[in-house]
Design brief:
The structure holds two protein chains of two kinds.
Chain A: H1 7-18, E1 27-32, E2 43-48, E3 61-63, E4 80-86, E5 92-97, E6 118-127
Antiparallel strand pairs in A: 1-2, 1-4, 3-6, 4-5
Chain B: E1 9-18, E2 25-34, H1 37-48
Antiparallel strand pairs in B: 1-2
The chains are: A mainly beta, B alpha+beta.
Chain lengths: 131, 62
């Protein structure tokens, strides 16, 4: 039987996570494999989030404010495999896989960032719980 | 007993990469689910208002 969460509960759960990223200098980091919350590994691009990083959750989803591009990415010959949302002190709050089919994030092509590339993020949302 | 796992958090983003070498802009729509067990533990701790050992320093790029 499916579990149904109220909108208020979904907003509370989402806000609990994204509020931990509201301090100045939170980051969106793209990484190569291997990477985990415990051992983040090598970054290919680092983008700076707004302060606060997210607005209040609505209908269970929080939307990030303006994210500053990485205009001179470190890059790596290996494909980006993970994305992290982390505080200015580099405490990871959200971590997920990024790769071709079979990963947590599905992309039609592999994603490789070269040194000096500009990486931008025009929209970002987070939803903690399903309805 | 079956090890049931609930639906994890979802992250959606639109990113663009402007290639330094060519100037070409590539656009990607990404949808991911933060189902890493460590992240789940961190989420649960945040909901409970606690810190956990999964809150670690990133030793990589800053």
């Amino acid at each position: 039987m499916a579990v149904t969460h109220s909108t208020a509960a979904r907003d509370a759960a989402t806000d609990a996570v994204v509020d931990a990223l509201d301090g100045a200098g939170s980051k969106l980091v793209f990484r190569i494999s291997p990477s985990s919350v415990g051992s983040p590994g090598t970054a290919a691009a680092t983008l700076t989030m707004a302060t606060p990083a997210f607005g209040a959750s609505s209908s269970g989803t929080a939307t990030a404010g303006t994210i500053t591009s990485d205009t001179n990415a470190t890059g790596n010959a290996s494909a980006v495999a993970y994305a992290s949302l982390q505080t200015s002190g580099d405490v990871i709050r959200i971590h997920c896989a990024v790769a071709a089919s079979g990963s947590d994030i599905n992309m039609t092509n592999g994603l490789t960032v070269a040194n000096g590339d500009t990486v931008s993020c025009s929209s970002l949302t987070y939803t903690a719980l399903s309805a | 007993m079956t090890d049931l796992v609930g639906k994890p958090g979802e992250l959606r983003m639109t990113i663009s990469i402007t290639r330094k070498a060519t100037g070409i802009v590539e656009n990607y729509e990404l949808v991911g689910q933060a189902e890493d067990k460590e992240t789940d533990a961190a989420l649960q701790a945040l909901v409970n208002g606690k810190k956990t050992e999964t809150e670690v320093k990133d030793g990589g790029h800053s």
